[in-house]
Amino acid sequence: MAKIRQALLSVSNKDGIVEFAKGLNKLGVTLISTGGTARKLKEEGLPVVGISEVTNFPEMMDGRVKTLHPAVHGGILAVRDNDEHMKQIKAEGIKPIDLIVCNLYPFAETIAKEDVTLEEAIENIDIGGPTMIRSAAKNYNDVAVVVDPSDYSGILEELEANDASLAVNKKMELSYKAFHHTAQYDHLIQDYLAKQLKSDDSLPEAMLDRYEKISDLRYGENPHQKAAFYKEKEITEPSITTAKQYHGKELSFNNINDTNGALELVKEFSDKPAVAVIKHANPCGMGVGDTLLEAYEKGYAGDPLSAYGSIVALNRKVTEDVAKEITGEGKFVEVVIAPSYTEDALEILKARWKNLRILETGDLFINRENPGYDMKKVTGGMLVQDRDVVETTEDELEVVTEVKPTEEQLKDLLFAWKVVKHVKSNAIVMAKDQMVVGVGAGQMSRVDSMIIAGMKADGRQEGGVVASDAFFPFPDAIEEAAKKGIKAVIQPGGSIRDEKVIEACNEHGIAMVFTGRRHFKH
Question: Looking at the domain that runs over 6-197, which CATH code has it been given?
């Protein structure tokens, strides 16, 4: 292993750089540095060779040009066991540089500012840094490159234990991290510029969204499938990905998917306390109330049998009384997710089940301004669409029947409409008094979904409402709703048989409203 004799330090993120430089100095490594990094190290009394002393050329153009010079890149890229390379750099008076410590201008932080201008963003595109990093990463057999301050202490330990040398496999690992670092940086820039150029609502020409592994999972949907959980960069709203886990076993693949479904549903209800009870990504119960306890009682009562082994999502702080209900006799919950918990509530939940996953999100909201994309992988490709975050208000509803819905029915219709958006298609939701009483999910025919929803409701739907995620192709589902005592229906409309469906409603005294908007979820 070759000894590190010269290191070039040029960092935007200066966390830990002084301590790292002191460690290198103790090992006899010559420190070369640039700009603000050099000033900081000199202030700490460290001997530093300025970059201009290496290049014999001044830093130029407000720092745009400083390391872009053969004296730097020759020292990095020379292959040490290539005699011709070594002869050439010796003839030019270039000394090998064995360690590059570099991270890049804060482009992400810059473009995150609300009032950032294009000119400011452009000035924070690093050129010399990525070039040095890539040069060192390419020549990892001879040169180590460090881009992450969290690596400093471990590298120093290895250098101290090995006479200022690093193993080649370690340098290869650092090379991988370096290319990952520059790839992320380039993605940020191209994504930002793409948004500046974009003048319409079209989707990107290429999908280069960045995901970083949070953790490996025990397995996927089934034990024979490998799985991992990845985090999307620049997350803009509370989510299962950003949630903090307080207690319980690690989340499984299915836990994460189901919890995401539960959380996204309760995020629809910001004005009142709401609770969703989810099984296999579908709501088996959902309730809204004046208090969180009332909302939970409604949510659980929607389908107590299916609620066993469920995911519970709440949109308000969980208090002691709610925690006691969740952990009541005969109940079993896999995951609880909420904005926050009182100390007493946490203790009650932890004490009930040692494996209960307890997650905290912080205050909930939906970023409707920049919601991001919904993606579905298919073999050999990917489907990409905007997230379905559109809201429907009472003013947008079109009453199409002779009977008009009452104010209470309108509230229940809009409630059910929010819920049905989160049910697998074909989807039917029966609701009454701001509570889901029956769900028909994922059926091949809409009438079957209506029959199943009615079976689940078991009489509680009498006088209630129905939401359908898409239009009724035939009046048969309305006939089933009428048998169950349904008094109002909300659906998109748009079928060639809309008139027949409306006639069926009129015959049975059912009010119907059209939204003009479909909510398929496959």
Answer: 3.40.50.1380
User: Whole-angstrom Cα distance, residue 481 to residue 473?
Assistant: 14
Element (H, E) at 410: helix 407-420
pLDDT band at residue 63, thresholds of 50, 70 and 90?
low
Q: Give dist(CA 288, CA 72) in Å, integer.
A: 65
pLDDT band at 168 (very low <50, low <70, confident <90, very high): very high
The whole-angstrom separation of Cα 392 and Cα 395 is 8
Q: Express each pLDDT in 356-401 by its tens digit.
A: 999 999 999 998 888 888 889 899 998 989 899 999 999 999 999 9
Is 181 a residue of the active site? no
Query: What residues contact 402, with CB distance under 8 A and at least 6 apart?
Result: 506
Q: Is residue 252 a contact partner of residue 238, using CB atoms and an 8 Å limit?
A: no
Give the alpha-carbon dihedral of 291, 297, 303, 304, to 10 degrees: 150
Specify the CATH number of the domain 237-360: 3.40.140.20
Tell me whether strands 465-468 and 488-491 are parallel, antiparallel or unpaired: parallel
pTM, to two decimals: 0.79
Active-site residue, from 85, 138, 324, 350: 138
Helix axes 128-138, 70-77, angle to 10 degrees: 20
- Three-state SS for 305-369 is CCCCCEEEEECCCECHHHHHHHCCCCCCEEEEEECCECHHHHHHHHHHCCCCEEEECCCCCCCCC
Residues 405-418 have a mean pLDDT of 97
**Cα-flanking dihedrals φ and ψ of residue 165, to 5°?**
-125, 155
* Contacting residues for 91 by C-beta, under 8 A, at least 6 apart: none
The structure tokens listed for 194 are 């793409």
Rg (CA), the chain: 30
Domain ranges, ordered by start, for the chain: 6-197, 237-360, 394-514
138 is catalytic: yes
Selected catalytic residue, list 177, 180, 280, 331: 280
The pair of structure tokens assigned to 240 is 């299962």
Confidence grade of residue 89 (pLDDT, cut at 50, 70, 90): confident
Q: Hey, which CATH number is domain 394-514, 3.40.640.10, 3.50.50.60, 3.40.50.1370, 3.40.140.20?
A: 3.40.140.20
Q: Which of 309, 312, 311, 296 is nearest to 434 (CA)?
A: 296
Does residue 342 have a pLDDT over 90? Answer: yes
3-state secondary structure of 29: coil
Averaged pLDDT for residues 287-305 = 95
Q: Give the CA distances from residue 191 to residues 184, 210, 419, in Å, rounded to whole numbers and listed in that order.
A: 10, 11, 34
Confidence of residue 232 (pLDDT cuts 50, 70, 90): confident
